[in-house]
Design a protein that fits this description.
Elements: H1 2-6, H2 8-19, H3 30-33, H4 40-47, H5 53-62, H6 67-86
């Protein structure tokens, strides 16, 4: 964990989060949803400025070939590899 904290990108993200700046890396975080009666989609919409940086990032992440596809592909590959290693 100490090595990750030494990474400039991690330090920048941490500083932005501490400053309260909404970036694609911290907006909509599960930390912001604790105790809220609103669903995740509503919370996301509430913190996303139309035409802003978070909206631009979410367009990519939620679009075709975005995060969901990437995650499914990664899990499938890890599952295949796990079976290979198990023999």
């Amino acid at each position: 964990m100490e090595r990750a904290a030494a990474c400039p990108k991690v330090r920048r993200r941490r500083a932005e989060a501490q400053a309260g700046r909404a970036t694609p890396g911290n907006a909509g975080s599960p930390l912001f949803s604790n105790g809220s009666k609103l669903d995740a989609a509503t919370l996301r919409q509430n913190v996303t400025s139309p035409g802003g940086t978070t909206a631009a990032a979410l367009e990519v992440l939620m679009g075709p070939g975005g995060f969901e596809t990437l995650l499914e592909t990664a899990v499938a590959k890890a599952t295949r590899r796990s079976r290979e290693l198990a023999g």
